[in-house]
Amino acid sequence: MTDAPAAKRPPKEVLAAEFSDEALFAHPKSFADGLFDGKVVLLTGAGGGIGRAVAWLVGRLGATVIIAGRKQEKLDVLSAAMRAKGLKVHSHLAEMRERDQVDALVDFAWKTGGAVDLVIHSAGGQFPQAAIDFSLKGWKAVIDTNLTGTFNLMQESARRWRDAGRGGNIVNIVTSPRNLHHVSHSNAARSGIIAFSEAVAVEWAPLGIRVNCVAPGVIRSEGFAAYEPQVRARYKDSNPLRRMGTPWDIAEACVYLGGPSGHFITGANLEVNGGGSLWGEVWTTDKPDYFLEASRATDPANVPNQTEDDGDD
After folding, report:
1. Hey, CA dihedral for 57, 63, 64, 69, is it positive or negative?
2. Domain boundaries in the chain?
3. Tens of pLDDT, residues 251-285
4. CA-based end-to-end distance of the chain
5. Are 85 and 112 in contact (CB under 8 A)?
6. Which long-range contacts (CB under 8 A, 24 or more apart) does 251-255 make?
7. Arithmetic mean of pLDDT, 132-140
8. Mean pLDDT of the 147-155 span
9. Sorting pLDDT into bands at 50, 70 and 90, what band is 225?
10. CA-to-CA separations, 90 to 25, 78, 150, in angstroms, rounded
């Protein structure tokens, strides 16, 4: 029996091949070899599609990469693949909601790799659901994972840089809350991250610490496969460019802000979403009939022809 055509295979299978470790190692990059030579990068959320792309890019640019996540198996697979290509990588388990685990992660990074130069925070998570149906437990899980977890990592990293008498650099991967529906708990948490990042970009500037955010739009990663087919089918039309981004797009945005190219940028939120925050919408579940009807009402095919009134004869 022959394999099914790519279009017929389960989306997760297709995406896993498209962004495999081999594919990420070979992916064309916009930055020069050696850009991060001698640098240490601490990366959370390394087990996810975006996190893996970031790990491969900064590793290929010469960094010693400390990868963190909640699942040892995923970290082991990524570490082995990167080491097989001659890249410098170490891994550590950490639950970002637990402050003692975050402190231990930062301590491990400094002791294992040396003084950390750049923290890229990709860890986070949410589930699609109407806000009216959230349980308190579900709400707290998303807020604690995204907002409190980010605070834990940012504060401990800043304290290490302050105590070492050296500057540092943080890039938080968030989401743009505009036009993103049925994940309002995540919108609340990520908006908090953006606001906190803007605030401490000012507070920590005297310490030589830059803080920025990258806000992905609809990204064609392995997580995308979890959505229902009718939901996925709309995603390419969620922005003016009418296509989805890739994990590599986000990785390169992180390097742009976290590398020498971003040396005069702090407190910024770089939206990498094809213009989706200006025009478009993303429903992470079925679009409610109320809004489907509104969309049909403004469809030119459903609007009677009208002629301009030139005024009195």
Report:
1. negative
2. 11-302
3. 999 999 999 999 999 999 999 999 988 888 887 88
4. 75
5. no
6. 251/50, 251/53, 251/54, 251/56, 251/57, 251/58, 252/29, 252/30, 252/31, 252/57, 253/214, 254/54, 254/57, 254/120, 254/171, 254/173, 254/214, 255/31, 255/35, 255/57, 255/58, 255/61
7. 92
8. 97
9. low
10. 17, 10, 21
Q: Which amino acid is at 196?
A: F
Pairwise CA distance, residues 60 & 82, whole Å: 9
**CB contact at 8 A, 67 and 91:** yes
Strand partners, 40: 64
User: Which of these CATH numbers, 3.40.50.20, 3.20.20.150, 3.40.50.300, 3.40.50.720, describes 11-302?
Assistant: 3.40.50.720
Identity of residue 173: I
CB atoms near residue 28 (< 10 Å): 5
Per-residue pLDDT reduced to its tens digit, 58-112: 999 999 999 999 999 999 999 999 999 999 999 999 999 999 999 999 999 999 9
Which helix (H) or strand (E) segment holds residue 272: the answer is: strand 269-272
User: What is d(CA 40, CA 284) in angstroms, rounded to the nearest whole number?
Assistant: 36
Parallel, antiparallel, or unpaired: how do β-strands 282-283 and 180-181 relate?
Answer: parallel
- The Cα 163–Cα 114 span in angstroms is 14
Residue 89 bridge partners (DSSP): 65
